[in-house]
Backbone:
């Protein structure tokens, strides 16, 4: 059922966009036209217990675009950094290639001379053992025997075991007393050969050059994109690379950043349910989600339908996400979302009617109907699925500040994308209340001169000043929060 703006506000007054977070600006409420802001790590724990976010919806309705816009706007602020697991793409590059290029970042493109060493000394010893054992089980397609696991544990401590090739040499030349127990030289050699055979695909074929050698990847960028688009999804290479990247993210990336270093980190997982098929990566994401707020971390997962969440790991990822964003889905999937996440009836009814760039946002106890609004820069770099759009007969401009599309087609307030408001609000969040008030007063005077005292632009400043009053009554948060 379609409604007018006035009818929508009357029907859903309790669900209009309440300021649950002062994060990056996303777009405008389709219930009352007010700005909608969201960044999970900026929201208080009593409102959002976890900083996990899950985006669901059919192809071509703005999930990936929404994710990229959130990232770009959040990256414009201090103390923010992102890592992306990008398993999508076309024409030999990943979905995030255009954004990486625009930000002067080189993606970690596997199959292009990139190597990540699973025996890197920055990875704690226990994690190294567990990672190599997981790789051996992937390569051998079965668990290692107890003798082979003991041989691996002994060989990994030798000076030679700094790469997979070195480890394979070490495990076949162990001294007779390397493993506790009475084993003959022939038995030791057999144990070592089992390990070598299991690890061979990662040295000689499936991931040749990608896992055997010194690490060539820097994790110091504000945006790190892991591009898996050239990797065969049906081969052992993808789960192996995912496992290694996961350990690097947990042991190195988070260790050199996170809340302890005044950084808020966000991990974006495209094609989440494909990735969750791999136990090591699924376990990693679960751990990250459970301790996300403590670590100053947010995990954003992007998928199609709640039906895709077949594994317990996938279901757990949805349960742990306090924020869920529903783009267009069919009525059956919408009803499933309603029952799984206790959505109100009006939201369930609207999900099948949503246009591109429109979504139902469930942020803790609050439910919103939001149109994502984009800048020209974002249109250029976030609408990257050209082949799919051509197949579906779409042009690559589904969302517009001036002419929003879809079933809800009334005009949005002009100048919703305005960094002056965000700058004032950010100053207030950081306790710089006087500066925030000065910024708001300056912006209001500029818009009075430019548009007149009764303009929508000036009305927007009245709303911002009201938000500043609200923030001034709360304790100041740390810089960047």
Residues:
């Amino acid at each position: 059922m379609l409604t007018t703006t006035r009818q929508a506000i009357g029907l859903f007054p309790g669900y209009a966009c309440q300021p649950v977070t002062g994060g990056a600006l996303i777009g405008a409420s389709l219930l009352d036209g007010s700005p909608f802001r969201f960044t999970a790590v900026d929201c208080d724990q009593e409102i959002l217990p976890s900083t996990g976010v899950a985006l669901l919806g059919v192809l071509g309705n703005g999930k990936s675009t929404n994710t990229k816009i959130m990232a770009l706007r959040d990256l414009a602020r201090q103390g923010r950094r992102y890592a992306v697991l990008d398993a999508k793409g076309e024409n030999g590059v990943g979905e995030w290639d255009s954004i990486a290029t625009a930000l002067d970042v080189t993606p970690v493109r596997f199959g292009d001379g990139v190597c990540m060493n699973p025996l890197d000394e920055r990875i704690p010893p226990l994690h190294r053992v567990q990672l190599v054992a997981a790789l051996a089980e992937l390569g051998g397609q079965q668990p290692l025997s107890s003798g082979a696991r003991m041989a691996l544990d002994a060989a990994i401590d030798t000076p030679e075991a700094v790469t997979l090739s070195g480890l394979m040499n070490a495990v076949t030349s162990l001294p007779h007393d390397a493993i506790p127990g009475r084993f003959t030289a022939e038995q030791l050699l057999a144990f070592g050969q089992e390990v070598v055979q299991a690890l061979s695909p990662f040295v000689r074929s499936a991931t040749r050059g990608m896992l055997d050698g010194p690490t060539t990847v820097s994790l110091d960028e504000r945006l790190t994109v892991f591009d898996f688009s050239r990797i065969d999804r049906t081969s052992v290479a993808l789960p192996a690379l995912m496992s290694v990247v996961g350990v690097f993210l947990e042991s190195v990336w988070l260790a050199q950043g996170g809340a302890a270093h005044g950084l808020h980190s966000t991990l974006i997982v495209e094609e989440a349910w494909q990735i969750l098929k791999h136990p090591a990566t699924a376990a990693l994401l679960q751990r990250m989600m459970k301790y996300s707020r403590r670590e100053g971390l947010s995990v954003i997962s992007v998928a199609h339908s709640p039906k895709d969440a077949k594994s317990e790991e996938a279901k757990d990822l949805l349960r742990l996400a306090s924020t869920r964003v529903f783009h267009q889905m069919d009525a059956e999937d919408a009803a499933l979302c309603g029952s799984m996440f206790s959505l109100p009836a009006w939201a369930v009814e609207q999900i099948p009617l949503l246009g591109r760039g429109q979504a139902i946002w469930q942020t803790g106890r609050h439910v919103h109907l939001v149109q994502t609004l984009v800048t020209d820069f974002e249109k250029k770099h976030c609408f990257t699925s050209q082949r799919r759009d051509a197949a579906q007969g779409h042009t690559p401009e589904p969302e517009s500040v001036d002419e929003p599309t879809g079933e809800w087609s009334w005009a949005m307030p002009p100048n919703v994308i305005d960094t002056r408001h965000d700058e004032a609000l950010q100053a207030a969040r950081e306790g710089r209340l006087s500066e925030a008030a000065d910024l708001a007063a300056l912006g209001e005077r500029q818009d009075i001169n430019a548009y007149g005292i009764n303009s929508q632009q000036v009305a927007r400043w009245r709303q911002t000043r009201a938000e500043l009053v609200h923030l001034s009554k709360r304790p100041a948060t740390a810089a960047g929060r």
Notes: Residues 1-17, 386-417, 476-481 have pLDDT under 50 and may be disordered. The first strand starts at residue 25 and ends at 29. Residues 423 and 436 are 8 Å apart (CA to CA).
